[in-house]
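User: quick one, sequence for these C-alpha cells?
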C-alpha cells in the first residue's frame, strides 16, 4: 500500500527538539501544480508529529493553528517540533515544515491539563424546537415544499 509520505529519519536534538526527515510521495501532490503538496496531508503529518512529541497523558490539545508561509514543495523536507512554552498545566508546542531552507508551514498547538469542568458547564443557547413546532414561512414553503 502506498503512503503520502515516507519517514527517512527522526532524531532528538540536544535542545529537546525533534527533527524528522520525510520524502513526499505522489499521493500528497497539490490539485493545481505538479511540483507542490496539498495542505491537507501536510497538516495531518504535522499534527501526527505534534502527538508524538513529548507525550503527556495528563494533557489534551486545546487548539492547533496552521500558518501557510508559501508554496509547499513536493520534495524531501524536514519537520522540526519543539516546546516553545513549557508548563505544568499549559504548554505551547510548535512544529515547522521546512524545505530548501524555507519554512512552508508553521503549526502551533496548546496542550492543557485535563480537569473536571462540570461545575462550570452550562449551555447558553436555547434548545432547538422540533420541525413540527416551527412556524411556517410561506414564501419559502411555496418554493421548497
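Assistant:
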Amino acid at each position: 500500500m502506498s503512503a503520502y509520505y515516507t519517514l527517512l529519519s527522526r532524531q532528538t536534538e540536544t535542545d529537546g527538539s525533534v527533527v524528522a526527515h520525510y520524502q513526499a510521495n505522489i499521493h500528497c501532490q497539490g490539485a493545481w501544480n505538479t511540483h507542490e503538496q496539498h495542505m491537507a496531508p501536510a497538516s495531518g503529518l504535522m499534527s501526527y508529529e505534534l502527538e508524538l512529541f513529548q507525550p503527556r497523558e495528563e494533557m489534551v490539545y486545546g487548539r492547533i493553528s496552521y500558518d501557510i508561509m508559501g508554496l509547499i514543495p513536493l520534495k524531501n523536507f524536514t519537520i522540526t517540533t519543539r516546546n516553545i512554552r513549557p508548563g505544568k498545566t499549559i504548554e505551547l508546542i510548535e512544529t515547522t515544515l521546512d524545505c530548501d531552507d524555507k519554512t512552508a508551514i508553521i503549526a502551533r498547538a496548546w496542550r492543557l491539563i485535563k480537569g473536571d469542568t462540570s461545575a462550570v458547564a452550562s449551555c447558553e443557547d436555547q434548545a432547538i424546537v422540533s420541525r413540527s413546532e416551527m412556524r411556517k414561512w410561506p414564501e419559502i414553503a411555496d418554493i421548497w415544499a
